[in-house]
Amino acid sequence: MNGAGRGEREKIRLHVEGALGAGQEVLLPRDQTHYLAHVLRRRPGSRVGLFNGRDGEWRAEMVEIGRAGARLRILERIAPQGAPPDLWLLFAPVKKTRTDFIVEKAVELGAARVLPVRTRFTNTERLKSERLRARAVEAAEQCGASWVPEIAELAPLGALLAAWPAERQIFLADERLAGSGAPVFPPEATAGPAAVLVGPEGGFSDEERARLHALPAVRPLNLGPRILRAETAAVAALALWQARFGDWQGDSAGDAPSTGGEEGER
Ligand code: SAH
Hints:
- It contains six helices and twelve strands.
- With 266 residues, the protein is of the alpha/beta class.
- It is elongated, with a radius of gyration of 20 Å.
């Protein structure tokens, strides 16, 4: 396999902020040093993959673990910069651990942006977006993505809809369709810029539902005969979209190793 082959990635992958290039050195911050040295027990000479969302993925070697942190030397680029399909996830935050779950799964399932929205029946007023960003970084490191989706600040659904880009279809997971016999995707659904919208545990209000269905960009999504929890609905909707319109088809510039095999154990 040649050195730039996508099947030869490192098992340990870390997201860093700075630029990446051959011969450069990277000093890891304390939390990543701790993770590498004490949790994973890696020593100088160990190899790790590095990515920053811009420069592709690079192989690096640990030089030393100093007081300031672990110092790594960058060796070579092992994968080009990947990108997720143009898919956003809009969801109404639920309880903390379930919201973390939604963000993690959105990264694994290849969402490009994650937008928490406040709806009529959302019972969350504040959201620690820094914590959600940290979850997104961890998920990207773990799942092989070389990008980290943007996590937007919590915003009212109405405001987002008022400024909605007309060409971006909204795949609305509407619980009223449960058991209706409606198709999963309506016939007018097409590929192209998309967003999946999932409501809170209390569902959408009648006003929200009416407003949404009146928008030309909205494509109602039927997630089957049972009422799903919000986090299940988010996972199901993202997976369905990826399988139908996204990068599960194998011909995209996504991030999965193209050779399959070794990396599947996590
Ligand atoms: N309490 C509401 C259900 C809310 S479920 C009720 O009893 O009606 C939370 C969110 O998951 C919903 O707003 C919707 O976006 C999504 N959802 C759950 N089940 C669904 C289904 N079968 N089809 C489409 N969307 C669904």
